[in-house]
Amino acid sequence: MTADKQQAHALVDRVPADQMMAAVRFLEFLLLDSVDRALATAPVEDEEISQEEEQAVARSKEWFKHNEGIPFEEVATDLGLTMEQIRNHRLDEEQDPAA
């Protein structure tokens, strides 16, 4: 066991019982992937929904009652993209956050 792990175990052993759940939650947080961590720390959406936005959602729901959705692959093709380009773009962003 590395010195860092030994220190972590020693620290966990010193956590008071009433704080153990918080320690466990923090350790679980550290193990999240980057997307889940970003979602877990995202600010709560507290902006009010405008009447225009509510109407747009209502129109969308009504449209889907009478129409099928458009597969993402079809939308990508219509935009002149391939799914491979989309997948690679996502990987490029994860490897180079400045991209």
Task: Set out the fold topology.
Layout: H1 3-14, H2 20-30, H3 34-41, H4 51-66, H5 72-78, H6 83-95
The secondary-structure class comes to mainly alpha
Assembly annotation: single chain
**Tally of strands:** 0
Largest sheet: none
Give the fraction of residues assigned to helices.
55-70%
Shape: elongated
Q: H/E element string?
A: HHHHHH
Taking Cα atoms only, what radius of gyration do you get, to the nearest Å?
23 Å
Count of DSSP helices? Answer: 6
Mean pLDDT comes to: 88
Note the gap between the termini.
38 Å
Low-confidence runs of at least 5 consecutive residues: none
Q: Which range does the strand content fall in?
A: under 5%
What does this protein look like?
The chain is mainly α. The protein contains 6 helices and no strands. The relative contact order is 0.04.
Q: In brief, what are we looking at here?
A:
By secondary structure, the protein is mainly alpha-helical. It contains six helices and no strands.
Keywords for this entry:
6 helices; 99 residues; elongated; mainly alpha; single chain
